[in-house]
């Protein structure tokens, strides 16, 4: 194995390893997201009823299909660690890049914390079923974060191969539940009578409100492009893995809604902690119960694992460009991972996991994700305007431009409104945080950035410059 | 049993933490910092693909 890369100037440099394939990209994207099928999405049913839950599932699916298409085109060209951060830096400018980098780190670190909290909750549930009330969740929350951080520290190939296995098992568990119920394995038949008897319990505004939690089905699929610098063939692997990922999630989301809505009353489903596991319990089939419990645990771990991977790459990339202290931009000479970034983000995740309520952590993660999706809309327009199709080669060209961009912008605006309905204070606080951070970057930090070094892509000049 | 698992979880957490921090310190002492932060985005891209038609 080649440990160091020699440059044209003759100096030795350490770089991240290019060892990943499309399946790892799929495992990264779906692994981060699939936990949303196991929990969280069902609050959309609570906000607006069964039909609203299904509409949220498909509208959010459309939003994320646009995200996946746009992301696939841009990232197949800007194949660098940091994903959307690197895209923003090259296409929009440094201040946008700094903000996008922060969106990424916040979204993934918060999601990692939320997953760790869920691990503790799951074990508490199991302990309760065995008659052990009042389990201390903290050691298991800490262990989940420390183990996955250590795995990430040791190398990206092992990390994402682990993710591939546990994500595949979690997805197969959903398919197995769907097939089993369809073939009569459930003691309780599917019942969709609420669709006609109580179609929209909170009216049309319930559909808008449900969209907030509909995002949970797919939130994080854009994380695939953080692997850009570690895949063997970015132009092929990233679009392939991302598009396969969104297709997997659309199938899993629809199956999940169908099974859970058919087996449980919407009033219960709308506030359930682990809806798929609960659906398996309703069937009365012990094998399905065990399988869905394993699926829930694996989906949660896969999500936290992918989040550590993505947050550390974003932090590393920003530091490498000196948007943050360059100390964090180090690569491990043996494992070839951004090891300082990984270790630095561990205590931050622990603070949120041990000290903040789950719904607040989740909301901050969603808000940071939404801000990132909004950036993608004008980023895509600027990319096509500055570098039209005949100027640079793309690994993937998304169809119907600018229709996906317009759809994405409209859906993002609707989602902001939906979030504002339930979490207006958090939305305002988050915006204030990013404004203050932007001011700090502009007036205090940007003077440390090596301005010529950060724009390194071997692209032709933008059109019109 | 769950009480023992709680202690085991604390112990394993500490172990993983110590492994990471000890390795980080060892690497930082062994290697020159300039080498460790020498990764460059454009260089990697340039060696992998050319965006020309």
Describe what this molecule looks like in 3D.
The complex is a heterodimer of chains A (465) and B (53). Chain A is mostly helical. Chain A has a single domain, classed as Amino acid/polyamine transporter I (Up-down Bundle). In chain A, 69% of the residues lie in helices and 1% in strands. In chain A, strands 1-2 form a two-stranded antiparallel sheet. Chain B has one domain (2-48). Chain B has 3 helices and no strands. The termini of chain B are far apart. Residues 44-48 of chain B have low confidence and may be disordered. Chains A and B meet through strand 2, helix 6 and helix 14 of A and helix 1, helix 2 and helix 3 of B.
Overall 3D shape of chain B: elongated
Radius of gyration of chain A: 22 Å
Instruction: Write down the domain tally of chain A.
Output: 1
Number of discrete helical segments of chain A: 16
Topology (elements, then pairings):
The complex is a heterodimer of chains A (465) and B (53).
Chain A: E1 5-6, E2 12-13, H1 22-33, H2 35-38, H3 43-75, H4 84-91, H5 94-129, H6 138-154, H7 156-182, H8 194-197, H9 204-214, H10 234-263, H11 266-269, H12 275-283, H13 286-320, H14 339-355, H15 358-386, H16 403-445
Antiparallel strand pairs in A: 1-2
Chain B: H1 2-30, H2 33-36, H3 41-48
Brief summary:
The complex is a heterodimer of chains A (465) and B (53). Chain A is mainly α and 465 residues long.
List keywords for this structure.
heterodimer, A: 465 residues, mainly alpha, Amino acid/polyamine transporter I, two-stranded antiparallel sheet, B: 53 residues, 3 helices, elongated
């Amino acid at each position: 194995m080649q440990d160091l890369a020699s440059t044209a100037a003759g100096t030795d440099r350490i770089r991240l390893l290019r060892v990943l394939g499309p399946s790892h990209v799929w495992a990264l994207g779906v692994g981060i997201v699939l936990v949303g099928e196991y929990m969280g999405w069902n609050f959309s049913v609570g906000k607006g009823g069964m039909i609203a839950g299904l509409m949220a599932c498909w509208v959010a699916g459309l939003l994320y299909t646009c995200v996946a298409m746009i992301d696939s085109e841009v990232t197949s060209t800007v194949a660098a660690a940091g994903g959307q951060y690197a895209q923003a830096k090259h296409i929009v400018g440094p201040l946008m890049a700094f903000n996008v980098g922060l969106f990424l780190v916040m979204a993934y670190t918060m999601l990692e914390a939320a997953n760790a909290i869920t691990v503790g909750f799951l074990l508490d549930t199991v302990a309760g079923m065995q008659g052990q009330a009042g389990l201390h969740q903290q050691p298991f929350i800490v262990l989940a974060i420390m183990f996955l951080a250590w795995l990430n520290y040791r190398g990206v190939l092992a990390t994402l191969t682990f993710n591939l296995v546990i994500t595949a098992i979690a997805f197969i568990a959903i398919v197995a539940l769907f097939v089993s119920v369809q073939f009569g394995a459930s003691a309780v038949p599917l019942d969709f009578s609420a669709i006609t008897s109580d179609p929209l319990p909170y009216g049309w505004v319930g559909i808008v409100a449900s969209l907030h939690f509909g995002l949970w089905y797919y939130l994080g699929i854009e994380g695939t492009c953080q692997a850009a610098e570690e895949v063997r063939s970015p132009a092929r692997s990233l679009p392939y893995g991302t598009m396969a990922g969104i297709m997997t999630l659309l199938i899993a989301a629809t199956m999940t809604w169908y099974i859970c809505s058919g087996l449980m009353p919407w009033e219960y489903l709308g506030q359930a902690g682990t809806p798929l596991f609960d659906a398996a319990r309703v069937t009365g089939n012990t094998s399905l119960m065990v399988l869905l419990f394993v699926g829930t645990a694996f989906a949660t771990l896969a999500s936290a694992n992918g989040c550590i991977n993505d947050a550390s790459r974003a932090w590393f990339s920003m530091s490498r460009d000196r948007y943050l202290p360059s100390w964090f931009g180090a690569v491990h000479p043996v494992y070839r991972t951004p090891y300082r970034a990984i270790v630095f983000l561990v205590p931050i995740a622990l603070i949120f996991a041990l000290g903040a309520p789950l719904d607040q952590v989740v909301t901050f993660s969603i808000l940071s994700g939404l801000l990132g999706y909004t950036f993608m809309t004008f980023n895509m327009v600027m990319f096509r305007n500055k570098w039209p199709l005949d100027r640079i080669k793309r690994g993937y060209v998304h169809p119907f431009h600018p229709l996906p961009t317009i759809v994405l912008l409209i859906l993002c605006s609707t989602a902001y409104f939906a979030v504002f309905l339930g979490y207006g204070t958090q939305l305002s606080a988050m915006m204030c945080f990013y404004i203050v951070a932007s001011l700090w970057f502009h007036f205090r930090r940007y003077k440390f950035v090596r301005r010529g070094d950060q724009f390194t892509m071997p692209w032709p000049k933008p059109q019109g410059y | 049993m769950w009480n023992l698992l709680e202690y085991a979880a604390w112990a394993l957490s500490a172990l993983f933490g110590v492994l990471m921090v000890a390795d980080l310190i060892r690497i930082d002492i062994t290697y020159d910092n300039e080498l460790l932060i020498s990764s460059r985005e454009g260089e990697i891209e340039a060696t992998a693909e050319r965006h020309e038609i």
